[in-house]
Design a protein that fits this description.
The chain is an all-alpha fold. It is built from 42 helices and no strands. It starts with 12 loop residues before the first helix and ends with a helix.
């Protein structure tokens, strides 16, 4: 059973056995009680009393569920379950002492229904506090299987008891089995996980708010409502057909034997439930129950709702309700945060289910004796309810994914992309800081105001400040604005002794056509003269700018004066209106050698302003230099498709300088176009350089997430699967090479560490590519959650990934991700991966040979060093002379 249900090392097998035994006894006791109640009711008041007892059960369960929910919050689920079992022991024994009558039979039925509605959900709530969603998917089937066994043994025990005891004595037998269940609970060593936060009391308003905050709970509630109504209508159809068809003397024996058959069928289904749920997933595994019930009801209608057809539908109910339906019904709740689950589950499984029972029972009571409660109309009702249930299940995927994403990202704080707006008090404080004598305060205040679009509050008098950096920043901000109140102060700065301030003032004024270039022509600073030369040459329309005397005189100078003058020219071109008259001069300046980062940045800005496509090759070559790289990227993006074509060509040229190609992917991402995305995806598929591929993966992720550009999902997922295969390959190599029995050395330690790092990088790339393929599914959050120390968060992330990969063409990658995200030890993960991949090395020698023959030069060198060292040790151990030497 442990192998069948995947019980793993480290999981408390004793605790699982205690849970399984406890549920076996609870279900066994309850099925004995069901046999007694059904027989007493059908042979006494008859099926007409079913509507009334359904209402009574609902009316009694609502307050009982409220009491249990409050007790569970205050005393814990384990103690509350123990108290409920005590009631389950006493109630049947007391009813046994009540004289036989129609009222006593109905009271027995109501008592049994209330206990069944409270004890079993309470047991599953206790189990849910101890297991993650991943463990639940594997282990709920094992625990529920024990319950199905109890469902088989209970009717068998009831049948045997009826051979020597009257029907009413089954009440005492049921009490005795409940005593065994209480003893099992008291002897078990179970410790529940309680929510870290949350109130000790659960007011109704707070519980209802959780449905608004967690939309998936509404779908769960609707499924519970419809399934309860379906089962109840089917139960009425079954029991009324039995009472109408069979003699009263045979009802008890038939019910006991039929329940044994149903529970045996349920046991067979239960043995495969874990495999089905793990293979299909939680939501798809919820589909078969309503689908089969709908098909069975339609078949019964075709047969006129005769006894064989009714027994068929009831057989589907018995085979599915306590196996797959029960397990999936509990698994639905596991991704729900514990506090929310604690609030909502009693209301849904207890209160809402009883409301459905009340409505259905009231309808049956009102319609009792009419043709509407005959078999054919009832079978029609069952078919309609099952169809509504099926439709609800089919619409649950979107809110379920939302719940998983919310469970993963809860508590995280996302940084805002834009600064928060300023309130009035903060604005006043920043304006006051502009008068500070500390340049850092003034600088910070101007930056804060400009980032929030409030640079208009910066007074022109800030240009009276003595600090150079303050003046340059203020002039840049004023030059980009539409204000004019700063012109006078800026003209005064044209005579400032610092050339950088004079040039900044000239540039700001030139942008507003307020600069007299002639006043700078004889400036002592070469940069200012270069700036003025371009402005004067532009005024002279009769002469080409590049051939203007004031330009040529400065271009011929090769010393530092000439270098600074060219910087001034580039600044003037960057500020000048777009005109092809400047293209030749700009090309000349771009070809002149300069290692200055300022030269690169000014060249990029000038290219952006003048839009000269001839500068594209020069700009691309500058990407290998860190200084000014962002300005170069901005210039390339501004040049549009011609620049994009050239950048793509550079990336595809595998013979180009590697230092340059490493910065091409991020540049492509700046174009924010489908063509750039397609180019990056192709490069990831074909580039032999792992470093370039890694850069391309990161750039494509940025492009897809920031600009919502879609790529071919299948291609991206194929790449993700390939990365996962690499991950498992490196994990396997790490496993076989890092043999603890092998001699330790520095080379072997480095090799193991590098293989660990490579496996981690492969897994990160696989998640990134899956995020690229499914950009709105929260895959990146799932990757972060998979690295969490919280097993609940890790299991929820694994469930999210498993639920995302639902298409038929995703089966391969789904299996790979399932192994990668499952709670497995390294050894178990390697063993699981070997079943999915081509033959992997199994010995240390095989692993070293694979690494030596691999493409990674560093890993190959280390593996060779380890292998050489091992051979030397082998020789030394067999040759004493060599060992001595």
């Amino acid at each position: 059973m442990s192998r069948l249900f995947d019980v793993r090392a480290g999981e408390a097998r004793g605790q699982l056995a205690a849970f399984a035994g406890l549920l076996l006894l609870i279900i066994g006791a309850h099925t004995i009680l069901e046999t007694a109640r059904d027989t007493l009711l059908l042979s006494g008041p008859g099926p007409r009393a079913l509507g009334l007892v359904y209402i009574a059960i609902a009316a009694g369960t609502l307050p009982a569920a409220a009491v249990v929910a409050r007790a569970g919050t205050r005393f814990g689920q384990r103690r509350t379950l123990a108290g409920t079992l005590a009631v389950a022991i006493a109630a049947p024994a007391l009813l046994f002492l009540v004289p036989a009558s129609h009222v006593a039979a109905m009271a027995t039925y109501v008592m049994s229904g209330i206990l069944g509605s409270i004890v079993v959900p309470q047991f599953w709530t206790l189990v849910g506090t101890m297991l993650t969603v991943g463990q639940g998917r594997r282990l709920f089937g094992l625990i529920a299987g024990a319950g199905v066994v109890g469902g088989v043994l209970g009717p068998l025990l009831a049948s045997a008891a009826l051979l020597v005891l009257p029907v009413k004595a089954l009440l005492l037998v049921s009490s005795g089995v409940f005593v065994a269940a209480a003893a099992t609970l008291s002897l078990s060593r179970t410790s529940e996980r309680t929510p870290a936060t949350g109130p000790r009391t659960l007011p109704l308003t707070g519980t209802l708010e959780t449905f608004h905050e967690t939309p998936f709970l509404k779908r769960i509630a609707l499924v519970v409502f419809l399934s309860t109504s379906t089962f109840l209508a089917l139960d009425y159809l079954f029991k009324s057909t039995i009472a109408r068809t069979l003699p009263h003397a045979d009802i008890g024996r038939f019910i006991a034997h039929y329940y044994v058959a149903l529970n045996l069928l349920s046991l067979v289904v239960q043995l495969s439930s874990s495999t089905v749920i793990r293979r299909l997933g939680v939501l798809p595994a919820m589909v078969p129950t309503p689908l089969l019930l709908l098909g069975g009801a339609l078949l019964a209608l075709v047969g006129g709702a005769a006894l064989p057809g009714v027994l068929l539908v009831k057989g589907i109910d018995g085979g599915m309700r306590y196996s797959i339906h029960r397990v999936t019904g509990e698994l639905m709740y596991l991704p729900v945060p514990p506090l929310v689950r604690q609030r909502a589950k009693p209301l849904i499984d207890g209160g809402l289910a009883r409301v459905a029972q009340t409505i259905t029972g009231a309808g049956l009571l009102v319609l009792g004796g009419t043709w509407l409660v005959h078999p054919v109309p009832l079978a029609t009702v069952v078919a309609v309810l099952a169809a509504a249930w099926l439709v609800t299940v089919l619409t649950m995927r979107r809110p379920y994914l939302g719940l998983l994403r919310s469970a993963i990202t809860s508590g995280s704080i996302d940084a805002a992309e834009t600064p928060e707006p300023l309130d009035l008090e903060t604005t006043r404080l920043l304006v006051q800081c502009l008068a500070s004598g500390d340049p850092r305060e003034v600088d910070g205040a101007m930056v804060a105001l400009s980032r929030r679009g409030r640079s208009g509050l910066i007074p022109a008098l800030v240009l009276l400040h003595h600090d150079e950096s303050i003046l340059k920043l203020a002039l840049e901000l004023f030059g980009e604005s539409s204000r004019s109140d700063w012109f006078a102060q800026a003209r005064r700065l044209l005579d400032d002794p610092r050339e950088s301030v004079r040039v900044a003032a000239a540039r700001a004024l030139a942008r507003h056509e307020q600069l007299d270039a002639a006043s700078l022509a004889h400036d002592v600073g070469s940069r200012a003269r270069g700036y003025a030369a371009v402005r004067l040459a532009l005024r002279d329309t009769g002469t080409e700018v590049a051939a203007h005397p004031c330009i040529t005189s400065l271009l011929t100078q090769e010393d530092d004066v000439g270098q600074r003058a060219r910087l001034g020219m580039l600044a003037a071109i960057a500020d000048a209106p777009r005109t092809q008259r400047l293209w030749r001069l700009l090309a000349t300046l771009s070809n002149m050698p300069s290692a200055s980062s300022e030269h690169t940045e000014l060249l990029a800005r000038a290219a952006t302003r003048q839009q000269n496509p001839a500068l594209i090759p020069r700009l691309i070559s500058q990407l290998s230099v860190r200084q000014g790289r962002e300005a170069v990227r901005t210039a390339l993006v501004s040049l549009g498709d011609p620049a994009l074509v050239s950048v793509l060509a550079t990336l595809r040229d595998h013979q180009a300088e590697r230092r340059l190609r490493l910065h091409i992917p991020k540049t492509l991402a700046r174009f924010a176009s489908p063509r750039a995305a397609a180019g990056l995806l192709t490069e990831i598929e074909t580039d032999p350089d792992d470093f370039v591929r890694n850069k391309a993966i990161g750039a494509l992720r940025t492009l897809v997430s920031a600009h919502r550009i879609r790529v071919d999902r299948k291609r991206a997922e194929r790449l993700a699967a390939a990365e996962l295969e690499e991950h498992f390959t490196h994990l396997t190599l790490r496993h076989v090479v890092g043999d603890p029995a092998a001699p330790a050395s520095l080379a072997s330690s480095l090799l193991a560490e590098l293989l660990d790092q490579q496996a981690s990088h492969d897994l990160e790339h696989a998640f990134t590519l899956l995020q690229i393929a499914n950009p709105r599914q929260g895959v990146h959050d799932a990757y972060i959650a998979c690295r969490s120390d919280d097993p609940y968060v890790r299991a929820t992330a694994a469930e999210l990934i498993d639920e995302i990969l639902r298409r038929r063409d995703q089966q391969r990658i789904r299996d790979l991700f399932r192994v990668a995200t499952d709670e497995l030890s390294r050894d178990d993960r390697v063993q699981e991966a070997r079943a999915l991949l081509t033959p992997q090395p199994r010995t240390r020698d095989e692993g070293l040979a694979v690494l030596v023959a691999g493409n990674d030069e560093i890993l190959a060198a280390l593996a060779l060093r380890v292998e050489t060292g091992r051979r030397a040790l082998d020789v030394a151990s067999t040759n004493p002379v060599a060992e001595k030497g």
